[in-house]
Amino acid sequence: MAMIEIRHVFKWYDKFQVLADCSTQVEKGEVVVVCGPSGSGKSTLIKCVNALEPFQQGEIVVDGVSVGASATNLPKLRARVGMVFQHFELFPHMSIVDNLTIGQVKVLGRPRELAREKGLNLLARVGLSAQAEKFPGQLSGGQQQRVAIARALSMDPICMLFDEPTSALDPEMINEVLDVMVELAAEGMTMMVVTHEMGFARKVANRVIFMDGGRIVEDDAKDTFFGNPRSERAQQFLAKILHH
Amino acid sequence: MLAGFDWSVIPASLPFLGQGLLYSLQLTVVAMTGGVIFGTLLALARLSGGPVLAGAAAVYVNTMRSIPLLMVILWFFLIIPLLTGKPMGAERSAMITFTAFEAAYYSEIMRAGIQSVSRGQVNAGYALGMTYAQTMMHIVLPQAVRNMLPVLLTQTIVLFQDTSLVYAIGAKDLLKAAEITGRNYNRPVEMYLFVAVIYFAICFSLSLLVRRLNRKIAIVR
Prior knowledge:
The structure holds 2 protein chains of 2 kinds. Chain A is α/β, with parallel strands linked by helices. Chain A has helices at 42-49, 74-78, 96-106, 112-125, 141-153, 171-186, 198-204, 222-227, 232-242, and strands at 4-13, 16-26, 31-35, 57-62, 65-66, 81-84, 159-163, 191-194, 207-212, 215-221.
């Protein structure tokens, strides 16, 4: 069974339809990149996967657990799904290391010392050991996003969701974040990534999903997508994005 | 003009005034602590989106904010003995009344504070697997309080000034103590002047603190 199964998902804001009949899946160990023009529903779709956004029709199953079912313990499910946001969303009133321990201690019930040790190890891994006692406001955007990735990893997630992780970054900081993500992919992490970074997609994606108008227009193996996209919209999108 | 005053009554009455001041401060601290806690719960209820809960909290807050505090103090003092059959004591009655009344004002401040924390922060808490209560407790409320600290303190200064209203039900606060000693020594003007200075000194130093905090928060942002 796939790690993430999305089956015929529909979503409306009042009468406005944002997702229409979206179906796809992410296998264990797979990296799937979701791209598309702004307003195409890609961020909404990824937020549906851990129920930060509700949907009205269809089903999403993560590791065998149905996200939309009323009996599902959402906090428990979300604790196993890492998420990285466009605007980092580190907790500004906590030090960096506290950002990395709060989930472990409050949600997983780990002893504080153990959580701190794990947090420091993860900071070292993203190259930010020296910043442990600083506060998020003292870090650059790229550093903050690397901390955010480490924070998600501190929960030992079974898969990771990235919602435009580099869109809010200055160009010179994009690579330091992508490097961490590439490394993560190489280690076999299951990842669903909303991004416009086609270089990243070429390098690590197994599949690329192209969305437009709330629909999944293309869902192809990477080489097919870049080599010969079927839909005209995807061709135009690629032409625009690659020629800049 | 000041020649006619007899200031010697002040040192003699200091211990008694001290007791009154102590009660005024106790009342302020109790009403502030209780008011902030109860007020935060009211704010969460109003923001909950549940029509019954939000509606009930809104009715409570708007009612309290539409009635003069002095009337609430009097009503509560007069009605409770009728309901329970025994008097409660002015001091205790005032503490409960002030907590209930101030909660309405603190709840509006906390509501603004909670709304000042972005939806993304809430999502980040949820994404880590936190429950609603954990997200509020560890992520939203600490930031809400920090953002609102100057306003919360300003409200507390107002609260401290308002505690003088309890003299109406005979609770022995600073003002009541001044009234009693002023009558005993037959020197009411000196006593009222003196407590005015005390109220001023406390409130003014608190507002200086608020100003410093405002500057500090502006830098952090």
